[in-house]
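Notes from the 1:1 (GR / supervisor)

We went over the backlog. Supervisor wanted to see one worked example end to end before approving the batch request, so GR pasted a single chain during the call. The sequence is below; no edits were made to it. Supervisor asked that the structure be written out right there so they could see what the output format looks like.
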Amino acid sequence: MKRIATVGLMVAALGLSACSGLNTKEQRMLSGGAIGAGTGAAATVITGGCVACGAVVGGAIGTAAGYLYHEGKSN
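Structure output shown during the call:
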C-alpha cells in the first residue's frame, strides 16, 4: 500500500510540474477541464452512471467552456 501511495504522489507531482509557464488561455482551459471532470464524475456517481464517462464528458465540456470564456474576455 505504501508503494502505491508513493507512485501516486510521484505521478501527481510530475503532472503538476507540466503546468508551469501556461498563458492565460491555457490556464482557463486547464481549470475548466479539471472542474468539469470533477463535476462530471460527481454527477455520474449521484445518478449511477459510468464515472469515467462522466469525467471525460465533463472535462471536455469544461475545457471548451474555459476556451470560450477566454475568447469572450479578450474581445
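Supervisor's comment: Residues 21-74 form one domain.
Batch request approved.
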